[in-house]
Design goal:
Elements (H helix, E strand, L loop, with lengths): L1 H19 L6 E6 L6 H13 L6 H17 L8 E9 L12 E10 L3 H10 L6 E8 L5 E7 L7 E12 L5 E11 L13 E9 L7 E5 L2 H12 L2 E2 L3 E6 L7 E8 L5 E7 L20 E4 L2 E2 L3 E2 L3 H8 L6
Antiparallel strand pairs: 1-11, 2-3, 3-7, 4-5, 5-6, 6-7, 8-9, 8-12, 10-16, 12-13, 13-14, 14-15
Helix pairs in contact: 2-3
Length: 325
């Protein structure tokens, strides 16, 4: 129940951001599945690899998430007298996830503790490694009485996104407390090497309008510096990460911004992207809400994973236009 309430709260927050952008209500579900393509020491290894120029891969990120989930759980220090009852690890969408970020590793343990629930929770939180913040708290009862807290640690750029630890205490019928701790670490599914704009682009065409009607904005970009900026913008994006989220319902024929990247030699379109003009939020790229506003992307006619992030605002600033009207 605590997890359900938490996820509803997260979804509600994302939807508030979306509605603030002018999108009307009603709800649908987005399911995104990309195509195949001690805590501190674990993260230290990841960071060291990146600092030495080793680019992360989905496989290396998955291994980092497994280490990180174990490391987050290892930061839980039960009070004296605690007896370990069970523990384990799981991976992927069928694991007992704290959020519906499917590309995640989970580690969990359960102890019995002779002290009361409030004292156990206070002790565990006091002795956690530094650097976390509270995501949510919950309580229930009275028979049994329960208390819980979920804390998060910062993401590791390009490697790990969600890094959560849930601590749950429940009064035992025989006295004392059942202490349950579960960690979740989400690995970043990296963008495949083929999902990039080919070299040699010399022109970028940007249009905005409704399907089947003349565009209300049309710009042809040939200035080399501006072309390079647009290419870099799209090369910098991550793919939408696998997961599930409730999205607002959209019009059957929504307006779209279309970006065509043309070869300098043939003027043929070598890559193109399409995105809603509403997708101009200032969210970080790893926010699940981007699954509701994906950037559709093709290279030489092949559809790839949708991309994640705000391309509308940089394009509007570069071209000095309003793509939404």
């Amino acid at each position: 129940m605590v997890r359900l309430m938490l996820w509803q709260r997260v979804l509600r927050t994302v939807l508030l951001f979306i509605c603030a952008g002018g999108v009307t209500a009603a709800v649908a579900t987005a399911m995104i599945s990309p195509t195949a393509g001690s805590m501190s020491p674990a993260i230290g290894v990841v960071a060291t690899g990146r600092s030495h120029g080793i680019l992360p891969t989905t496989a290396s990120n998955r291994r980092a998430a497994v280490r990180d989930a174990k490391g987050l759980l290892a930061g839980v220090a039960p009070p004296a007298g605690a007896v370990l009852q069970s523990s384990g690890t799981k991976i992927g969408p069928h694991a007992p996830l704290l959020t519906t970020a499917f590309a995640s590793a989970v580690a969990y343990s359960t102890w019995t503790v002779p002290e009361d629930p409030a004292s156990v929770l206070s002790f565990v939180e006091t002795h956690l490694p530094s650097g976390s913040k509270v995501v949510s708290t919950g309580s229930g009862g009275p028979n049994p009485s329960t208390q819980s807290v979920i804390r998060s640690w910062p993401p590791v750029d390009g490697v790990l996104d969600v890094r959560w630890l849930e601590i749950d205490v429940t009064s035992a019928s025989s006295g004392g407390t059942q202490l349950h701790a579960e960690s979740q670490s989400q690995w970043v599914v990296t963008r495949p090497s083929g999902e990039q704009i080919p070299a040699g682009v010399r022109e970028v065409d940007v249009t905005s309008g409704w399907p089947g009607k003349p565009p209300f904005v049309s710009r042809q970009v040939t200035n080399r510096a501006d072309v390079r900026r647009l290419v870099r913008l799209f090369r910098s994006l991550e793919i939408v990460q696998p997961g599930a989220i409730n999205c607002p319902a959209f019009s059957p024929n929504p307006a779209a911004v279309v970006i065509d990247f043309r070869s300098g030699a043939t003027k043929q379109v070598v890559a193109d992207a399409s995105v809603s003009p509403e997708a101009s939020f200032s969210w970080p790229p790893n926010v699940p809400g981007w699954a509701c506003f994906p950037v559709a992307f093709t290279v030489r006619g092949r559809k790839w994973n949708p991309l994640s992030g705000n391309v509308i605002t940089p394009i509007e600033r570069l071209l000095r236009v309003n793509l939404g009207s």
